[in-house]
């Protein structure tokens, strides 16, 4: 089962540059990246709503939702920023540079989040291997941008 989850993460990662390209194309036809992002979220919301209905999930209880910390509600904002930024940057800096920078930012934040064990992440101390991995990724960003 672990290999399935690893493959799923890899395939989902492959969707990042595709999504940015699709959304930047939509931006050309919808008066900008913000409208394209809004449309993208509307389509995504409809798709997820359809899946929830098809799978017959129970509706969340308001009292349970109220117990969530305030920052648990910020994921949609982060997603909107990510989608809008991708739609805006894709035609300006290219897929490889954009994704290299996105992945570098994701990895650096991931190492920090793992180190402190924040939210639902299991704690993994920063070690030499993780630091070297981050440095290699930064070197990759530089190489991709330079050539």
TrEMBL record:
Domain of life: Bacteria
Transmembrane segments: 34-58, 70-89, 95-116, 128-146
UniProtKB keywords: Membrane, Signal, Transmembrane, Transmembrane helix
One Pfam assignment: DMT_YdcZ
Signal peptide from the UniProt entry: 1-20
UniProt xrefs under InterPro entries: YdcZ
Keyword Transmembrane helix included in the entry's annotation: yes
Protein name: Transporter family-2 protein
């Amino acid at each position: 089962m672990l290999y399935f989850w690893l493959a799923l993460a890899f395939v989902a990662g492959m969707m990042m540059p595709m999504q940015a390209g699709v959304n930047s194309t939509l931006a050309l036809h919808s008066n900008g990246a913000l409208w394209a992002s809004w449309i993208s979220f509307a389509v995504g919301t409809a798709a997820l709503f359809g899946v929830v209905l098809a799978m017959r999930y129970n509706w969340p209880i308001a009292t349970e939702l109220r117990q969530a910390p305030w920052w648990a509600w910020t994921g949609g904002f982060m997603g909107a920023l990510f989608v809008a930024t991708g739609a805006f940057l894709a035609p300006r800096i290219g897929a490889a540079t954009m994704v290299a920078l996105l992945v570098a930012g994701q990895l650096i934040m991931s190492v920090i989040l793992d180190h402190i064990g924040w939210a639902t992440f299991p704690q993994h101390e920063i070690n030499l291997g993780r630091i070297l991995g981050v440095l290699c990724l930064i070197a990759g960003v530089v190489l991709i941008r330079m050539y």
